[in-house]
Amino acid sequence: MGSVNVGIIGCGNISSAYINGCRQFEILEVTAVADIMMDAAHAKAAEHAVPHVYSVDEMLAATDIEIVINLTVPAAHAAVSLAAIAAGKHVYSEKPLAISRADGQAILQTAQANGVRVGCAPDTFLGGGLQTCRRLIEEGAIGQPVAAAAFMLSHGPEGWHPNPHFFYKEGAGPLFDMGPYYITALVHLLGPVQQVAAMARTSFPERVAASGERIGVDVPTHVAGTLQMTTGAIATMIISFDSWGHTLPRIEIYGSEGSLSVPDPNNFGGLVQVRRAAKNDWEDVALTHSDGVRRGIGVADMAYGLRYGRDHRASGELAYHVLDVMHAFYDSSFQERHMLVESTCAQPRPLPPGLPVGQLDR
Question: Where are the domains positioned within the chain?
Answer without folding.
Answer: 4-120, 124-288+323-340
